[in-house]
Amino acid sequence: MRSLTLREITVRLDAGRRAFTALDRVSLHVARGSVVGLVGESGSGKSTLGRAVVGLAPLTSGRVLLDGQDVTPGRRRRRSGPGLGIQMVLQDSYSALDPQLTIGRTLDEARQAALLRPATLAAQSAGELLELVGLDHALAAVRPGTLSGGQRQRVALARALASRPEVLILDEVTSALDASVQSAIINLLRDLRGTLGLTMLVIGHNLAAVRHLADSVAVMYAGQIVETAPTERLIGDPRHPYTKALLGAVPRLNGSVSPGAPDPDGANSPGKLPGEPPDPHVPLPGCRFHPQCPVGPLAVPDRTICTTHDPRTDARLRPHQTACHFAA
Ligand SMILES: Nc1ncnc2c1ncn2[C@@H]1O[C@H](COP(=O)(O)OP(=O)(O)OP(=O)(O)O)[C@@H](O)[C@H]1O
Asked: Which residues make Cβ contacts (< 8 Å) with residue 201, sequence separation at least 6?
């Protein structure tokens, strides 16, 4: 396993009439064999970050490093990019699997692709891969359409593991599943982490699921990471005003939640904060969070949070910070 380092990742996307900044200089480190959770509201840029790392979203600037080695997608001097070294599993495994191929064929193709990679460790058989994710060998003969959502997600995981990736990015892999299936997948990921020592970036709305997998959690808001901290510290002592607001909307998080506990009502997910997150298509002048920021008008009603409060130093970064309720 290797570490994953993201340095100042910026992604500008084209949304019809004009481009907008979906990710703004995002930096993150996932130590070798560790698990980092990435949480935030819908539209904050979590999936775009994962996609940019594996080359599925255009990277405007920034670097992707595996153990310090530059594997940034699209860089000229890099020959293969993250390639098979970083694998991503998506929420929608139905569209991610070819409906015409049997599961065995899908896994065999993934194994074959991995064998072309010189550094690849010995790939396992399709049956062994299925076993690894808790599925019966017999499922190798069937097509994805006959599987349940949970089984398909396990197959998607097996396909990602077929190439023995150094880093696994899991994007909302449980959010489309029933509560009990969610719980089983979370437990599977915990087991795989133990047996394979995987380095993982786990993206999710569900803070409880991330909590029970992740050593540390990064909180994303409007295309930026506003706070990163060891998981229990983040939950017990959030420093950034946005993290506090996010956790404040989740009363049960400070209580006891059993590992991998299902969360059918979303009570352990980041709660619904007042107002709407900023629209990334509309550039915001001055403070991005505070409705009364004197630097400029804010297009986000009810968001009484100022991002200019530095959680690491507790410093007030800019003069207009004094208008922020949270830092007052
Ligand atoms: N291909 C694209 N073209 C244009 N805009 C996009 C594209 N992909 C994402 N976006 C926009 O980028 C922003 C970030 O989206 P992203 O899917 O990364 O957020 P997210 O935090 O993963 O949300 P969710 O949890 O709902 O998946 C959103 O405003 C989204 O509409």
From this structure: 4, 28, 30, 35, 36, 38, 50, 53, 167, 168, 169, 170
Mean pLDDT score across all residues of the chain:
75
Closest residue to atom 25 of ligand 1, CA basis: 42
pTM of the model: 0.80
**pLDDT reading at 257 higher than 60:** no
Which atom of ligand 1 lies at the shortest distance from residue 280's CA?
29
Nearest residue by C-alpha to atom 29 in ligand 1: 43
Residue nearest to atom 8 of ligand 1 (CA): 48
Q: What is the pLDDT of residues 74-110, one digit of tens each?
A: 765 444 455 668 999 988 767 778 999 999 999 988 8
Q: Where do the domains of the chain lie?
A: 4-283
Q: How far is the CA of 219 from the centre of ligand 1 (A)?
A: 16
The DSSP result for 41-99, as a single string, is -TTSSHHHHHHHHTTSS---EEEEEETTEE--TT-TT-SSTTGGGEEEE-S-HHHHS-T
Q: Is 224 in the pocket of ligand 1 (CB under 6 A)?
A: no
What confidence score (pLDDT) does residue 42 get?
Answer: 83
* Terminal C-alpha separation, the chain: 44
CATH superfamily of 4-283: P-loop containing nucleotide triphosphate hydrolases (3.40.50.300)
Asked if pLDDT for residue 262 goes beyond 50, the answer is no
CA 155 to chain centre: 19
